[in-house]
Design brief:
Blueprint: E1 8-14, E2 20-26, E3 29-35, H1 44-60, H2 70-80, H3 101-120, H4 131-135, E4 139-146, E5 152-158, H5 161-166, E6 171-172, H6 175-181, E7 185-186, E8 192-193, E9 210-212, E10 219-223, H7 230-243, E11 254-260, E12 263-273, H8 291-310
């Protein structure tokens, strides 16, 4: 039985139409899949399966309302009211949920394109050595569509330079902020990925965390995913360092900026102090945690917040 390999979701996007885009790493390459309900309506079960996943995402994630056409509205009505669903309209192999709404739709799309990705993929796993190699793997665009014969076919093409650039989040920084930082601006090709000896090297390479410029100094690589927050984050970490709080609190400082292409005022990532970490309190079972330990955590959090507020950091 065919199965999905390990894969890493790089990005998922959908707007106010049924068009969505999934970018994943698997089979040694990066695949950018563009899909829409309009391209699937030649097979009713397929179109319905996709709309069902999209509808769940729309409801559970509270996203902007999607604009459906008349054909899609009919299916959505059946999805919202299962009692009116026709017996032969059920999805044939995708009823089982695999997680939250986002995970479910990503898996559904990847599963439908799995045979094509396997055929187009590499025999070896993607194993980048530098941040540049991780940012710029070989990328193919896949477009699943039901053809005139009523068969799902997946078109493929090399990704354009414009798309590859769009897949890398970046932010432009003001010159005064760059001058204030006084940290090096580094090309991704000069930043190396650090691998632990016991790290599993099979499957896709997940977003690198541990990196180094010079052997012996491990840094944390943080891509600029939420671009609108990066300048404020940089300002805050600068103030933490200037106030000396980085000496008493477990907070990182900035060691470098990762340059975006050849632009000297645009970055695609930060190089921060690497702080060994585990699960956050969000994963703790409160009911199974002794009261004494919980009170200790509360005290530590209050002390930390007090130090931040006393230095004007909110």
């Amino acid at each position: 039985m065919e199965s999905m390999p390990d894969y890493e979701v790089v990005r998922f996007y959908c707007g106010v139409t049924t068009h969505s885009e999934l970018t994943i790493l698997c089979y040694g390459k990066r695949f950018h899949i563009e899909i829409s309900a309009e391209d699937l309506q030649g097979i009713i079960q397929l179109g319905r399966g996709y709309l069902e996943k999209l509808r769940r995402l729309e409801i559970e994630d509270g996203m902007m309302s999607i604009q459906y056409n008349d054909w899609q509205k009919t299916l959505i009505q059946e999805i919202d009211h299962p009692e009116i669903q026709k017996e032969d309209d059920t999805d044939d192999d995708d009823d089982e949920m695999v997680g939250n709404a986002m995970e479910e739709i990503c898996f559904w799309i990847a599963w439908k394109c799995n045979p094509s990705m396997k055929a187009l993929g590499s025999d070896t796993d993607l194993q980048p050595i530098t941040v540049k190699q991780w940012l710029y793997p070989e990328t193919l665009v896949l477009t699943p569509k039901v053809d005139e014969r009523g068969i799902l076919s997946v078109g493929s093409a090399a990704a354009s330079d414009g798309l590859i650039s769009d897949l890398i989040s970046s932010v432009r920084l003001q010159q005064d902020l760059l001058q204030k930082l006084q940290v090096p601006l580094l090309q991704p090709s000069k930043i190396f990925l650090f691998r632990d000896k016991d790290e599993d090297l099979t499957g896709p390479t997940q977003r690198p965390e541990k990196v180094f410029i010079d052997p012996g100094e491990i840094l944390f690589f943080k891509p600029c995913h939420r671009t609108h927050e990066i300048p404020r984050e940089i300002e805050t970490m600068t103030r933490l360092q200037q106030s000396g709080l980085d000496k008493t609190l477990r907070v990182p400082i900035i060691h470098g900026l990762v340059q975006y292409q050849q632009e000297t005022d645009r970055i695609c990532g930060l190089l921060l102090t690497y702080i060994k970490h585990g699960e956050t309190l969000a994963f703790v079972d409160i009911n199974e945690t002794p009261l004494e330990r919980r009170n200790k955590w509360i005290s530590q959090i209050r002390q930390m917040i007090g130090k931040l507020h006393s230095n004007g950091i909110f």
